[in-house]
Design brief:
Blueprint (H helix, E strand, L loop, with lengths): L2 H9 L3 H22 L3 H17 L10 H34 L4 H8 L2 H10 L3 H11 L5 H8 L3 H25 L1
């Protein structure tokens, strides 16, 4: 059965249509997730979240839309959310460790600053354009599309700049954790 027919049935809350779409696309979503996530479990979680999102937003999906493209947009957003969650958890862990152990100068420095100040310091070290894009995304909660239109750049450029910013933050967390 064609995707547009399945989507039409999905919009009517047809569970069989949903199951068929899941069976047709779960592996592609999983494989795409594995490109960016380090664990099988994290990729499996993203697959589940993506299809939950499809079910929850089924009323808004249009039959003429590219369903595969929609899936990958949702997947990309879920992956970014996973990375954001991971970055936040790492910062939290570092803050707790810093508070518990005061034997290194760097730990005293981190203790003296709030977590927000430390994150802002790392963000301030980003190249100016990347910093602007990251702040628009994370502090002003603008979508990639809104940022692209505002800065007259492509959404792909926005995505790449956010990915590089997150990569930089993760690297600094890793480097810092070596000193803790």
């Amino acid at each position: 059965m064609e995707d547009n027919k399945l989507i039409s049935l999905l919009k009517q809350s047809n569970k069989d249509a949903f199951t068929t779409l899941y069976k047709n696309y779960w592996r592609q979503v999983y494989n795409f997730s594995r490109l960016y996530l380090t664990t099988k479990e994290a990729a499996e979680e993203v697959v589940q979240e993506v299809f939950i999102k499809v079910w929850e937003s089924r009323d808004f999906i249009r039959e003429e839309d590219n369903f595969k493209g929609l899936l990958f947009i949702i997947t990309r957003n879920m992956i970014f959310n996973q990375h954001r969650k991971s970055v936040n958890e790492d910062f939290y862990k570092m803050t707790v460790l810093t508070a518990m152990e005061a034997s290194y100068d760097i730990e005293e420095e981190i203790e003296a600053k709030s977590l927000g100040e430390y994150i802002d310091m790392l963000i301030a070290e980003l190249p100016p354009r990347r910093q602007i894009i990251f702040n628009l995304s994370r502090k002003e909660n603008k979508t990639y599309k809104e940022i692209a239109e505002l800065l007259d750049i492509s959404e792909k450029t926005v995505e790449n700049q956010i990915r590089e910013a997150l990569k930089y933050l993760r690297q600094n967390i890793t480097l810092l954790s070596l000193f803790l």
